[in-house]
Amino acid sequence: MVTSIASVCLSGGLTDKIHACAAAGFDGIEIMDSDLTVAHESPEEIRALCERLGLRIDMLQPFRDAEGVDEDLFADTLRRAREKFRTAQRLGTDLILVCSNAATATVDDDAVTARQLGELADLAAEHGIRLAYEALAWGRFVNDYRHAWRLVQLADRPNLGTCLDSFHILSRGHDPAAIEEIDGEKIFFLQLADAPDLNMDVLSWSRHHRLFPGEGSFDLVTFLTHVLRAGYTGPLSLEVFNDTFRQTDTGRTAAHARRSLTWLADRVATTDSHDDRRIPEAQCPHAVDFVEISGADLSTADHMLEQLGFTFRGSHHRKPVRLWTLGTARLVLDEQDKHETPHLSGIGLSVDDSDRASARAEALGAPPAFRRTHTGDHELRAVASPDGTQVYWNDQPAETWTEEFTGGDDGDSSGAVVDHINLSYPWQDFDEAVLFSTSVLGLDAQASSEVPGPRGLVRSQVMRSPDGVVRVPLNLAPPTAPTPPRHVAISCQDVIGVAERARARGLQFLAVPANYYDDLAARFALDTAFVDRLRRLDLLYDRDDDGEFIHFYTPTLGDVFLELVERRGHYDGYGAPNAPVRLAAQRPAS
Ligand SMILES: O=C(O)c1ccc(O)c(O)c1
Ligand SMILES: [Mg+2]
């Protein structure tokens, strides 16, 4: 696989972008004309820098509003083009992207447009330049890749081909199957971008919301499969206009971008037998093995777990680490770091093959996590997720590591399990977290939603294993708000009983306002005694066509809290209507 990336995907000046692309392992770069215009380095200096770093300049882009114009304007097209052809020569690239006219086109006549494209190509040929004609989704007369390809065929010049951009094709709902009818050698360039499913005008959608492959809802696997079947052998290039990536750390975003291509090429190889691109297959987790909370002093957590009815299973024989369980929900309290406030620090996932899971993570450029181990301890493979949470893979029964804990009681068989693990991200790391979860962890993205919080909207994106057993909702904090605490939710068979016993042992739950219960009674026509019981225990309630959901939250310890839930019937959600109540109640006093 030969890879490339448009300089528009990254923040910084052009030379910063070039350094970051080379460091992330891209083979080439598309230089955006606007990035070059504002750079102090000459085209020759940019070229020399790229040569020194082993980065090919694949293309200069875009050249706009060239065709479909009257003859006076076309004369000006040729004058402008001559200048840009010289610039491309100085950069040492022979390819320029010509995007379809979105502003000045007045002539809707294929014969005229093809003749003008031909003349432009002839001028390019005098400079040793090739042109890749791309249909913008919002082009005035040309906005469909099949139309652009017809014009390229009509113009019929050896140095004129087409550029396919997944955004322009998939955003318009155009069937990508006809790509296979294009002569692969005439596809001069390929640009890939994903995007969320938004209902808005295509220009704003394209300029602000494109995503790297695997982060949105476009079917890029099918798209790329068609392009490769057409015989395209050029670079897979990313062209992602996105408000967030324009601001985030250049090197980190470049590495993240590169991971998206590894993921995509692997998916295409899996479905279309391009075996050279395979990396070890994803290990879909089949259960949560454990959740780890770290902090300098976790005695309050011990007390809280006891109040919630967890069983103390013992202390680690060598480390200040303790194990508590409720059913098969295993919580590990780790006091090895003497400087930390309590936080959710690790997640253990049960997989079939932890070596393969870790080899895949490495192939995807995810940083391995290192754990202090002592000889003899069961060693788990681990990787650091973008928010720093360590993810461990275990392909052995839990007993292989729980045996290291002694001095506690036997566990219960109540059927309680980890229901979901809620991670929160600052706004700039969110898309990276989605790609990490799909590509490295083998989880699938569900539809995202937005929840109003006191400091802004919190976006929530649930990632889950194909069988729905492992669920990881990701929360995106509003830009000016602190990242909300992470939490782990445990589901049990009788949450009201758990709440009553915990309350009797003195645990105060997150306080729910009385107004919530008035609203609840209005929404659901519930039995008054039942609502009173919920109110007395600060329990939250939700119901849909599939079943019911009852849950409560513990107070926050440092940066972590627990949620206890009960699912009745086939309720499959997370109590989303109650999330604003929680966010408001957790707001730090100001
Ligand atoms: O938004 C644009 O104008 C624009 C420019 C060049 C491209 O390749 C593209 O896909 C979009
Ligand atoms: Mg494009």
Describe the structure in your own words.
This protein has about 600 residues and is α/β, with parallel strands linked by helices. The chain folds into three domains: about 5-275, Divalent-metal-dependent TIM barrel enzymes (TIM Barrel), CATH 3.20.20; about 285-405, 2,3-Dihydroxybiphenyl 1,2-Dioxygenase, domain 1 (Roll); about 415-585, 2,3-Dihydroxybiphenyl 1,2-Dioxygenase, domain 1. The chain contains 18 helices and 24 strands. It has an eight-stranded parallel barrel, surrounded by six helices. Strands 14-15-13-9-12-11-10-16 form an eight-stranded mixed beta sheet, covered by helices on one side. An eight-stranded mixed beta sheet has the order 18-19-20-17-21-24-23-22, with helices on both faces. Strand 6, helix 7 and strand 7 (about 185-190) form a beta-alpha-beta unit. Helix 1 (about 15-25) crosses helix 10 (about 250-270). It starts with a strand and ends in a 5-residue tail after the last helix. The model has no long low-confidence stretch (mean pLDDT about 95). Bound molecules: 3,4-dihydroxybenzoic acid (DHB) and magnesium ion. Magnesium ion binds near residues 134, 191 and 239. Magnesium ion binds near residues 134, 165, 191 and 239.
Any chance you could write out the topology, listing elements then pairs?
Blueprint: E1 3-6, H1 14-24, E2 28-32, H2 33-37, H3 43-53, E3 56-63, H4 71-91, E4 95-99, H5 110-126, E5 130-134, H6 145-155, E6 160-165, H7 166-170, E7 187-192, H8 202-209, H9 220-229, E8 236-238, H10 250-272, E9 287-294, H11 299-307, E10 311-316, E11 321-326, E12 329-334, E13 343-350, H12 354-363, E14 381-384, E15 390-394, H13 399-402, E16 405-407, E17 417-425, H14 430-439, E18 444-453, E19 456-464, E20 471-476, E21 486-491, H15 495-504, H16 514-524, H17 528-536, E22 540-544, E23 547-553, E24 560-569, H18 579-585
Parallel strand pairs: 1-2, 1-8, 2-3, 3-4, 4-5, 5-6, 6-7, 7-8, 9-12, 13-15, 17-20, 21-24
Antiparallel strand pairs: 9-13, 10-11, 10-16, 11-12, 14-15, 17-21, 18-19, 19-20, 22-23, 23-24
Helix pairs in contact: 1-3, 1-10, 3-4, 4-5, 5-6, 9-10, 16-17
The chain binds 3,4-dihydroxybenzoic acid and magnesium ion (MG).
Residues 61-62, 97, 99, 134, 136, 165, 191, 206-207, 239 line the site of 3,4-dihydroxybenzoic acid.
